[in-house]
Amino acid sequence: MLLLYGMAAGAVLVTGWARGAQPDDIPPTWPIVLYAAAAGAVLLFLALQGLAGVAGLERRVARRFLGPSTREVLEGRISELAASRAGIVAAVDAERRRIERDLHDGVQQRLVALAMMLGRTRRNADPAAHADLLRQAHEESQEVLSDLREVAWRIYPSALDTLGLDDALAAVAERSAVPVRIRSDLVLPLPARVETAVYFVVCEAVTNAAKHSGASAITVDLAESPDHGSVRVSVRDDGHGGADPAGPGLAGLARRIAALDGSFAVASPTGGPTTVTTEVPCG
Prior knowledge:
- This protein is an alpha+beta fold.
- It has helices spanning 2-18, 30-66, 70-123, 127-155, 159-162, 165-175, 192-213, 248-258; strands at residues 180-184, 218-224, 230-237, 263-267, 274-281.
- A five-stranded mixed β-sheet has the order 1-2-3-5-4, covered by helices on one side.
- The mean pLDDT is 78.
C-alpha cells in the first residue's frame, strides 16, 4: 500500500509541476525534487520489504494449512514401508523358486547322471571301460561341486566374510567372461548390509552384461558421498543395450535396495550403453 500511495503522490506532483502548477506555493526546485526522490526510494524499499515479508508469511500459512499434515506424512511413510515389505516377501519367494529350479535342473540332474555312471562302472567288467567311466564320474562330480558353489553363492556371498568387499569384487571380475575394470573410492569396512547390497548389485549387473549385452568391456565405479552417508555404485557396459528393468534379476535388486531405503535405476537405450546405478544409505 505504501508503494501505491507513494506512486500516486509522485504522479500528482509530477503532473502538477508539468502543467505549471505549484502545490501549496512550493516551487519545483531541484533540492525539493531530490528530497522527494529520496523519500520515494525509501518508501519503495520499505514497500518491497513489506511485500517480501507478506509473501513469506503467505507461503508459511499455505504450507501449514494446505500442505500434508504430520499424520498424512506418517501414513504415506507407512504405506511405502508396507509396499517395500510386500516387495521383499515377493523377492524372497522368487529367490526360493529360483534356488529350487537351480537345484532341480542343475545339481539334481548331474547327481542322477553321476549315480548312473557309477552304476555302469560297477556292472562293467572291462578294465578300459571301467577306467573311462570313473574318469567321467570324476568330471561330473567336479561339475556338481561347481553348481553347488554357484547356488550357495547366490544365497549368501561367503567371500565377503573371508575376503572382504574389495577382494570379493575382484574375484567377480576375474570370473567374468568380459573384462571388468573396478574403480573404488570406498573407505572400508562398510556396514554389513551395505557391503552385501553392493556385492549383489555388482555381481548381477556384471553377470547380465556378460550374458546378454554383447559387451566387450564393463566398468564398475564405487564411491561414497562427501558426508559418508551413502554409497553410490555404477556398473556400465558398452553392449547393445535393451536391458529390461522388470526382469527377475534386476527387479530383485531393485526390491533389495528399496528395503534399505536406497535408490536403483537402469538406463539401457537401444544400441547401448547400459548403466545400472544404485545408491545405498550407510546410516
